Amino acid sequence: MSRKISSLLILAVVLFPLLCFAENDSAGDSADLLQNQTAPNSKAIQLFLIHRYEEALSEFRTAVASDPSDIVARRYVGACLSALRRDEEAFITFNEVLRMSPKDLSVLKLLANTHLRRGETSKSRAYLEKLVEYDVDGGRFSVYAKGQLEKLQMISSTGTLGAEPLSGQMGAEEFMKTQGVIRFMDAEFEKSVEAFDVLEVQYPKDVMVKRYKGIALDKLGRYEEAVNTFNEGLAISPENAALRYALAQTLFHKKDMEASRATLTYLAMSGVSSDYKIRADRDLEAIDRIESIRLASEGKKWSFVIEQGAEFNSNAASEPKKEQVPAEEHAVRFPGSLYGSYELRKDGPWTLTGSYSYAHSFYSDTLDYLNTLVHVPTATVSYLGKLWDRPYVAMFSSSYVHVSVDEQMYYQSYPQTFRWVYSWVDWHRLTLSESVAYTDYQDQGLTPDSTSREGVSNAAKATNTFYLNDTKDLNLAVGFEFKVEDTQGSNYVRNIHQISTDFGFPVWRDWTGLLGFRYKNSDYPETVLPIARQDDEYLVNTRLTVPMNKNTNLKVFLDYLNNNSNDPSYNYVNLSGGASIVASF
Q1: Percent of the chain beyond pLDDT 90?
Q2: What single-letter DSSP state applies at residue 367?
Q3: SS3 assignment, position 205
Q4: SS3 breakdown of the chain: % helix, strand, coil, rounded to 5?
């Protein structure tokens, strides 16, 4: 039973003294117990609450004599007799109440507790089960009874009640009657530990005492003491599955996941009873789920991805269709990339991350003048919030991009990007982004006013991703982007409209596939070339991802790119295909 429920039970004990052991009752208002019955005099209640049971008994019996139908007074009579250990008389009184009201929950609880104190677990269990049956609305009586039944099951699982005790140990029936167990069942764990300390002196090798002392210490959050107590028990009985399972639970509570996992694995792999093997297997699965959720919610401080591939390009230099040079048309390209990120600071919903991206593209000898290197350091601030009770992520990134071709700087850019990701239902995700960049090119051409590509760009993009199954490996992403490039040279001022779709799907086992399509229209409104340039570009791409192990994937791809322009100088087609290895950490 959780500490929360235990606390509620203790509170119920304070407020409703007839619902528990008379010896554990505390002073409080008993008016709720009286309900609509004739109330015994206040003097009797006060005497009962301060544990003067003999005097209270006399007062309550007077109340019963004056009104034999007063069920509440009869309850108090039975409670007084139970507190005075006059159990047989108490049973007679409780049964009188049950004859008048067969489903009296308060009396059923008193009977269950009295039999439990006497070590009569089967009788106690029978009354607890009646509480669960009769408290049909799942009220406090049902909650209490279920908790006590669970504890009885825990104790009885140690061994068969009534069995011959081992040397130096109490029998289970005798153990049930001890103050340690009684206090434990009433969630009085401090007093329970004190009672078990006394029992340990008398029975230093009783593993059942050590087990329940350890569990009580665990309930109090005294995890190191609990672990030591369990280990003392295991030193006496190394193969005791109940002790080892209790140890695994405490290790879990103190957040020592690896030690808890190792202890549960030992149980799962050893020849223990099927009951504890099932529990161990179940808890190992739970730990794995909790760890995956924790890592997903907390995230790693750092991440690292490296990729290296090889591909064949039919037209790597994008030669115009009518002017293709066969010697330079085909090439083998070796693309590679490296990405690393580190969480610099996390403060509540805010996270500051630093990252670095590197990419290279090396070509075979005929086109080695196209060899390209890219360096991109980035700082990102993200905020995790809620909108309409659903989470969203807002991110702002500031980057510097440096691109060199054939060992010479080609351009450098300074993109500033805002991105917002929101999922209003589990099967949909919306991503909005806005990116502004200033780009500086090394070569501005012969007449910069018309040939320079230096300037500011602004791109806005929206992507809707639809998840078509529970595992989310069947999905469809549809996006639209509008970009304006306002360059110094009029020939490169352009407006870009792009539509993209990506369909992801499972292939076989954990293999996944992707089929993508892009259409990009580029309009050059200020061109001074003889023909006003406008491009329509089409891209079809396919991907197959095959996991090789936990950290490594194999990717196989095939792409077809076709750029149609009203200026033939910019018409080209390229077919590329290859594979790459991706390692993620």
Answers
A1: 35
A2: G
A3: coil
A4: 40, 35, 25
Query: If you count them, how many residues does the chain have?
Result: 585
Q: Which of 228, 180, 184, 172 is nearest to 201 (CA)?
A: 180
How many other C-beta atoms can be found within 10 angstroms of the C-beta atom of residue 299? Answer: 14
> Cα(468)–Cα(505) distance, rounded to whole angstroms?
9
Tell which residue, 356, 352, 315, has the closest CA to residue 337: 356
CB 418 within 8 A of CB 386: no
Q: How is residue 368 written in tokens? A: 């080695």
Parallel, antiparallel, or unpaired for β 475-487 and 534-547? unpaired
Q: Is 329 helix (H, G, I), strand (E, B) or coil?
A: helix
Query: Are 265 and 285 within 8 A, CB to CB?
Result: no
Instruction: State pLDDT tens for residues 353-383.
Output: 999 999 999 998 788 888 999 999 999 999 9
Q: Model confidence over 253-312: pLDDT tens digits?
A: 888 888 888 888 888 777 655 577 777 888 888 887 777 666 665 556 788 999 999 999
Average pLDDT over residues 62-68: 85
Coil, strand or helix at 161: coil
Position 133 pLDDT exceeds 90: no
The arithmetic mean of pLDDT across residues 222-231, rounded, is 92
The DSSP secondary structure of 419-452, one letter per residue, reads EEEEEEETTEEEEEEEEEEEEEES---SSHHHH-
Residue 503 amino acid letter: F
Query: Would you say the C-alpha torsion 448, 450, 453, 457 has a positive or negative sign?
Result: positive
Output the pLDDT for position 458.
96
Cα distances (Å, whole numbers) of residue 242 to 3, 157, 228, 273, 288? 21, 8, 15, 10, 22
| Residues 517-534: tens digit of each pLDDT | 999 999 999 887 777 889
Q: How far apart are CA 558 and CA 550, in angstroms?
A: 25
pLDDT at 8: 31
What CA dihedral angle connects 14, 20, 24 and 29, to 10 degrees?
30
Tokens in use for 318?
């994008």
Instruction: Write out the H or E segment, with its range, that includes residue 572.
Output: strand 572-584
pLDDT score, position 189: 87
Which DSSP string corresponds to 452-518?
---EEEEEEEEEEEEE-STTS-SEEEEEEEEEEEEESSGGG-EEEEEEEEEEEEEEETTEEEEEEEE
Tell me the average pLDDT of the chain.
82
- How buried is 12 (Cβ within 10 angstroms: 0-12 exposed, 13-18 middle, 19+ buried)? middle
Q: Quick one: which of 174, 188, 235, 177 has its CA closest to 210? A: 235
How far apart (Å, rounded) are the C-alpha atoms in residues 222 and 214?
A: 9
Range with the largest mean pLDDT of 185-199, 326-340, 507-521: 507-521
CA dist 12 and 1 (Å) reads 15
CB atoms near residue 490 (< 10 Å): 17
